[in-house]
Amino acid sequence: MTKPTTIAVIGAGLGGAAAARLLQKAGYATKVFEQAPAFSRLGAGIQLGPNVMKVAAVMGIEEQANAIGCHPDFWFSRDAVTGEYLSRIPLGKSAVERFGNSYITIHRGDLHQLIIDTLDPDTLHFGKTLVDIEQTPDEVILHFADGTTDRATHVIGGDGIDSKLREKLLGPEEPTYSGWVAHRALIRGEDLKKYDLEFEDCVKWWSKDTHDESVDRHMMVYNTKADRSEYYYVTGVPEPAWNHGTSHVKSSPAEMREAFHDYHPIVQALVDETKEVTKWPLYERKPQAVWHQDRVVLLGDACHPMRPHMAQGAGMAIEDAAMLVRCLDEVGAADYQQAYELYRLNRFERTSRVQKVSHNNTWLRHDEDPSWVYGYDVFNVPLQQPGKCAA
């Protein structure tokens, strides 16, 4: 039964799409507005911890994601030069037993497609770039770049780090360039078979721990498919400034060789088999206290963008979506201000901690207990009630 409210989700990325799926599943009339002209399979990998797979189960995509994705038995951290193992974090069956769900690595586009396919197609609108909103006592009027308007009783901002809704709530403010870039590339598994080397399912190669960011760098590598036909890497490399004026640029194997010239032969093989590679600036913001105003509420990168060094950025957005819907059901959409504040209170501390650890780039470099991340269950964690400040 449809509940007496209409919710507009701005942005159909992973966080926005997850929010729309969970809202529609809970019975809320929901429509989604995405600025891209159509869905596309973006060329990047993503890691889904058990904390995120618990949400995937409720969204109804867990079985498909498990079938498509790779299930690494370990997260390995290795010294970039010697190949020495710095940590072995058990995943595989151990993750299911300890944390209640699997740990998978998958192509981001494949995961995104699974979520998009669960949505009512009549509610998904592409080519809609939000340019302004008007809030009235009863609704929000949405203005799009194509000259059209729409209306909703509530609006969720899943529109990323350059969120127009965040700007409307807090004013214009550029995110902070971190001084790091990420190179991203996909390699055919078939092309690696000629090497007498072991290309592990999930491994991060770390440079020497000098505490000097100017010389530090890393490469995270994992399979994105169950049949191991696609191998993906993403790097973190210092770059003093980003002056390209675009979201990413083409890189080259030559640039990769320069950045990782002294790395282990396994990394050299990956660079040698790189056909196409892109380079992306890494942006972040400090934790912000304001997540909502009147009928508008933010989630994911719109309110807590972070470096990808914990592989939890999308995970936090998906958790946000689940907690937001939980709080709307807990309080009732009619009392949306209380619901939004309950949501913020129950997400602020966790997302801020993940932002900090991601910024420091220390996650799983050495053996540690990842339970506080992977063991989290957004649907069953006790709710902190208003009156206890989380900011």
Verbal overview:
The protein contains twelve helices and 19 strands. By secondary structure, the chain is of the alpha/beta class. Helix 1 (14-26) links the parallel strand 1 (3-10) and strand 2 (28-33). The model has no long low-confidence stretch (mean pLDDT 95).
Chain-wise SSE layout:
Elements: E1 3-10, H1 14-26, E2 28-33, E3 45-48, H2 50-59, H3 62-68, E4 74-79, E5 85-90, H4 92-99, E6 104-107, H5 108-116, E7 124-125, E8 130-135, E9 140-144, E10 149-152, E11 154-157, H6 164-170, E12 176-188, E13 202-206, E14 218-223, E15 230-238, E16 249-250, H7 253-259, H8 265-272, E17 278-284, E18 292-293, E19 296-298, H9 313-331, H10 336-345, H11 348-360, H12 371-374
Parallel strand pairs: 1-2, 1-11, 2-7, 4-13, 11-19
Antiparallel strand pairs: 3-6, 4-5, 8-9, 9-10, 12-15, 12-17, 13-14, 14-15, 16-17, 18-19
Helix pairs in contact: 1-5, 1-9, 9-10
Quick description:
The chain is 29% helix and 26% strand. It is built from 12 helices and 19 strands. The strands form 4 sheets. An 8-stranded mixed beta sheet has the order 5-4-13-14-15-12-17-16. The protein has a 6-stranded mixed beta sheet with strand order 7-2-1-11-19-18. Strands 8-9-10 form a 3-stranded antiparallel beta sheet, with helices on one face.
